[in-house]
Amino acid sequence: MYLNRDIITLEEAQGLLQGVNLQTKTKKISTAEALFYVLAEDVYATFPIPAFRRSGYDGYGILNEDDHSFPREFEIIDNIGAGSVLEKKMSSGQAVRIMTGAKVPDEVGKVIMLEVTEKLSDDKVLIKESMKNSNISSIGEEFLKGDLLLSSGTRLNAGAISLLNAFGIAEILVYQKPKVGILATGSELLKAGEPYVEGKIYNSNGPLLEALVRENGGLVVTLDNVKDELQDTLAILNDLTSQCDLVLTTGGVSVGDFDFMAEAAKAADQFLFNKLSMRPGSPTTAFVHKGTPVIALSGNPGACFTGFYLFVEPTLQRFVGGKSRLKQVKLPLVHDYDKPNNFDKYLRATVNFDHDSRLTVSQIGSDKSSALGNLHSTTAFFKVPHDSSIHKGEEVEVWLLPYK
Ligand SMILES: Nc1nc2c(c(=O)[nH]1)N[C@H]1C(S)=C(S)[C@@H](COP(=O)(O)OP(=O)(O)OC[C@H]3O[C@@H](n4cnc5c(N)ncnc54)[C@H](O)[C@@H]3O)O[C@H]1N2
Ligand code: MOO
After folding, report:
1. CATH node for 27-49+148-175
2. CA-CA to 92 of 20 to 30 Å: which in 75, 81, 238, 239?
3. Domain residue limits, the chain
4. Is this prediction's ipTM beyond 0.90?
5. Prediction pTM value
6. Are 128 and 17 in contact (CB under 8 A)?
């Protein structure tokens, strides 16, 4: 138990974590498994798209020299579906039936939409009028060979996966997801599915952290619980720090008789911090053991959630060559907040449009760090600076959460 702690600011704590050297690792993976991985290479177009003159419509292809004196009849010489090519050579007075996406023969200058034609027989079509556009996409209209498709550091979403596939790319180099160990501490913890026992609670922070890590690009390798016993806690931490790239714990960071994380921090290779001038999560603790950072978050669910975004999310991004995906903006608060505290507060919030289509921020649910009912609907945090109240309409600093 540590009562005398050196208090530092959120920014100082974030700076200490930033100073911890982290190893980024890369690997080749199949594009099919690459969703939400971060690219570790620039990817270039190996051919143009379209790769051939492509028909934009279902209709009839005609020569440029025949593009006059409508309505007139044409001889249909063939039918080109998408994926097929015309083997014959066309001459004046002939038309070729062609489908959207099919390769337009070199000699065809225009595709006339089906809607302005009338089929007279199997090999005769009446083209009633011409069209303003050629309805043919030129080679390289969207991408030229050598164009940069995706740059290193891009988080691969559905659109990126489709782009890689459009170029036939089956394998790419990505950053390995950091291996994260999660440890929920507390003799009061039950697992979901276990029968309720008086005085105990179900462990919700462990699964919360597991889901947050997965949402933010980490790989959860273990999810343990440990009772409030110092030796067990130290042994598990020793184990986790040798297996994982990052260890997260929840609970046991305060000054209770059974709060051992501050002691673990003092016993570790490198101590970072154990007291912050902020709420929630003032006793948040961090240290490095065996080269692995350990971020010990509060057991209070609201503090655990907030601490994840302020300390863990930026660390997870550093493992994949990036930085925090939270966006910092200033927005008007839609209500008063009149509970001044001697620490800066970071409150759970949502961002919405007001009647004038302006973005605004408002507190959501309880501001207590023990509250857990608003975590699923929180899309942002806003800051209430220490010793101050905020009046309705006043601008506050806001952090927008990713994935919301
Ligand atoms: N005398 C003082 N007491 C406290 C102080 C202080 O400065 N002096 N700080 C308070 C603040 S601020 C915080 S934040 C909490 C931090 O508590 P701990 O991280 O040590 O967490 P616990 O004591 O283990 O638990 C707190 C609370 O959270 C519940 N909890 C714990 N683990 C989980 C879990 N996995 N899932 C859901 N809920 C969990 C636990 O049952 C407690 O209710 O300390 C204050 N006290
Ligand atoms: O700093 Mo604590 O998370 O307010 O209760």
Report:
1. 3.90.105.10
2. 81
3. 10-25+176-319, 27-49+148-175, 54-137, 327-400
4. yes
5. 0.92
6. no
